Amino acid sequence: MSAYGHQMEREFSGQNLLIRGGSENESQSTLEMGVYMSSFAATVFIGGLVTVGVSVMTLLIALIVMLQDCQSQNAGVVEMQKWAENSEYCRILAFHVELNNLDSSSLPSPCKEMVLQNIRDGHYLRQLNDSLRMVEIHFSNVTPGDDGQDVVLMDVDDLFPSEFFSIDGLSFPRFKRNTSANGMDARHVKQMSVQTLYVKLRDGGWNLILLSRKHERFRNTMVEYLNSVGCNGWSSLIMRVDDEMPLDSQEYISRKKTAIQKQGFRIVGAISSQMDFVAGPIMRGLNFKLPNIMWISKREHHVFTDEV
C-alpha cells in the first residue's frame, strides 16, 4: 500500500475512533441522564403510592369502623325491639297469671328473668312509689265519717316479712336483706314503704283492719313484729282459723270482706299488692293494687331471694 494509502487509513481510523468515542461518551451521558431521571420519577412515584396507600388505608379503616358502628346500632335496635316485644308479652302474661292466682312456675324463664331485671333496674320501686303516692293523695282528700264506721282494709302480709314463715308452716326469723341495684332488697323497701303508708293512714284518723292469709297460730309472732316496727293501733287483726285453711285465698278474703260489711263497717279502701285481696267489688270504696314483686311459690322462694 502506498504512503498515501496508509495515511488515509490512519486518518479514517482516527475519525472512527473519535466518532466511536463520541458515541460512547454520548451514550454514557445519555445513560447517566436516564438513570437520574428514572430515580427522580421513582421517588415521586413511590411517594405518590405511599400517599395513596395511606389514604386508602384511612378510608378502609373509616369504612370498617362505620360498618361496625352500623352493625352495632342495628344489633342494638333489634335487641331493643326484641326486649320491648318480650317485655310486653311478659307483662300481659304475668298479669293473667296473677289475675287467676296461678303459680309463678307458669311463667317462662325469660319472663322470670325480666321480672328480676325490672327490680335490678329500679323499675319496680318507681312503680311502687307512684302507687303509694296515689293512695296517699286519695286519702288526704277525704275524711272518715264521724260514726267511726269507715275503715281501710290493709293486707297485713304486705307489712310482715314473709321470710318469717317456713315451708312447713313454722315461724322463724330468717329475713334476708340482699342488695339490689338500688342498694337495698326490693322486698325490704316495699315492706318499709307500706309500713310508712300504714302510719300515715293511722295518724290521719282512719280505722285500719288488717287481714292476713296466715293461720291464727301466728298471731303472737305477727303482733309482736308489728308493734316493734310501729304498726300498732289497728281496729282488728283478722287471721284464718282451722276450717278456713282449705279455702282458696280469694274466697277466704271475699268472705271476710262480706262479714266486715255485715257488721256495719264501710270499707272505703282495700290496699294490697296481691290480686286476690283487691278482686271483687267493695260496696262504696276503692281498691288500690300495689305492684307485686313476684308471686313465687315456696319452692321458688330461695331462687328469688338469692338472685335479687
From TrEMBL:
The keyword Flavoprotein does not apply. The keyword Membrane applies. InterPro entries: Acid_phosphat_B-like, HAD_sf. Keywords: Membrane, Transmembrane, Transmembrane helix. The chain crosses the membrane at residues 40-67. Pfam families: Acid_phosphat_B. It comes from the Eukaryota. This is OLC1v1026708C1.
